[in-house]
Structure formats: C-alpha cells, structure tokens
Amino acid sequence: MTTTVTHTTSQPAVPGSISAVSTDKPRDFQTQLQYVKVSEDGKALGPSTWGKTDYEEDREQLVPATIHDARGRQGDFSLDKNGFQLIKHTTVMKKEDYNSEENVKNIYYPEVEQMVKDVTGASFVKTVHHVLRHSSSPDPDCLTLTRPLYKVHVDSTPTRVATTIKLSLGDKAEELLNKRYALINIWRPLKVVYKDPLAYCDGSTVPDEDFVVRELNMPNGAPPKENSAVRMGGGHVWYYLYGQKEDEVTFIRCWDSKPSVVKRCPHSAVRDEAMEGMEDRESIEVRCLVFWEE
Q1: How confident is the model at residue 4 (pLDDT cuts 50, 70, 90)?
Q2: Can you give the pLDDT at residue 15?
Q3: Angle CA(168)–CA(264)–CA(184) in degrees, nearest 5?
Q4: Mean pLDDT, rounded, of the chain
C-alpha cells in the first residue's frame, strides 16, 4: 500500500492521521559534529559507551557543519532517496503516558507499526525496542531513558540487523530474511524541541566507505553490540526541523536490504548555542523491523 503525504493547514488533528509537516521560515545554524576517528586501515579508534555522549578526543573529531532547516522542503525528502522522511502524525498518547512502559508497548507500539505500514507500504512491522531521551537524564546506564547522543552514528549494522531479525522473530526469521527488510527508527518529540534537536544527514551524500563499524559498550554487564559510526566526509549534507513539535515525526533508516535505495541515514543530537537556555529536550524513538512482499 502506498500512502500519499499531503499538506494540511486548517483541519484539526486526528489521532492516527498522517500528513506533511506545516511550513515556516527556515532557520539554519552552525555547529560541530562528533565524527569517529579511524586508523590507517579504516577501523574505529575506539568503542563508544551507552549513555556517554561527551566528546572523546582520542577517538572522535569535531567537524564544523551547517545544519539546514528542512521546513518548507519536507516533501523533497524520502526514505528511499535520502534515508529519512518527515511526517506529521497525531498520536493518542499524552506526554505523561510515556512514563508507563505498559502504555508505550500496548498503545504506542501498535500505533507506530500502523504508521510505518501506511508510510512505507510494508506488509509486516515488528517493534523491537524504544528509548526515551531527556537532556538531563540522571541515569546514563538506563536502557529506556537516557540522554541525547551527540555522536554521528547509525543505530545498527547490516549484520546486526539480520541477527536482530533471527532473535526477535524465531521460526519466521529465515522466510523474512528472503524478503526485502529494513530497520527504521521512528523519532518523536514529547514537547516542542529547541535544545539538542535531532539532525539527520542526507544518506545520498554519504558513500559506503564513510560508514565504520564501531563497538558499543552496554551497561550493567550486558555484552557489547555493533553500531555504525561515520567518519568525516567532504560532501555530507545535514538537516533538522527547527522547533519540532509533538506531531512531527522523523523516520530514519538504519538499514534496508533493497539494492536500489539509500540504505542508511547518519544522525546525531546537535548543539545549537542560541538554544542552550531553552528547556531540556524530551523525545522517544522506536526501532522497527520492517518487511515487504518483494
């Protein structure tokens, strides 16, 4: 099924409805991005650690960048062409509902899965994980509530996505791995975001050689995982939505098995000096395995 994304400006929001984000005057800004440093043979110079967002000089480099405001251009971007897509979607969830893991799993997960089907035309969607983020989270080791991550990254690797499918879907996995499959991160603010916005790089500007496998050390004695870090590239183009609202949702592709599409979208929380005095960012991201009858 194909969903047509249209502009809506005067009709009231209805839970479950999808449309393009309304447009305002764009606001670009300058920042520094934390890219991974690599060895002479192209390997990451060190692992990252869950919940550790600070710059690590021995294994990362700060790279000046312009973050372009995508307002007014939302319809120009798509998952297949750019690795990210901007959607307007009204949820039945209230801000306080996200404090309940039961509400998130029983109400929000099904809502997200239907939204993903509507936007992508997928035949089957399985949510595997969610993370709440707060700029002042007191416990960086918590797997479901942590701080925004100021490191350019992708949430998985191709090998890890296939492993996640096997672990999550059991006997169905082998059949599904023979279809087109993807991992998509569905990111939503819990209130209007000015501080620590999420930025995403146009995946069509990132060649495969700029992606680097980087080990992610997990808390509480859990085994490490593989993530994709990104090394500095000369042509990377970055976007965000200024003042992103609760009904403005960002789809970020972490992997797609289809050869002819953009497979990955680097992303990162970014610091905007002019917004440092604003309220802390609060957001939720839901990671979904997505399958098509292809």
Answers
A1: very low
A2: 65
A3: 40
A4: 90
Residue 72 has pLDDT above 70, yes or no: yes
Nearest alpha-carbon partner for 35 in 54, 62, 66, 67? 62
pLDDT at 14: 58
pLDDT given at position 1: 34
pLDDT above 50 for 226: yes
Burial (CB < 10 A; 0-12, 13-18, 19+), residue 49, is middle
Distance CA 230, CA 209 (A): 9
Phi, psi of 222 (to 5 degrees): -70, 150
Residues near 16 by beta carbon (within 8 Å), at least 6 away in sequence: 89, 90, 91, 92, 111, 114, 115
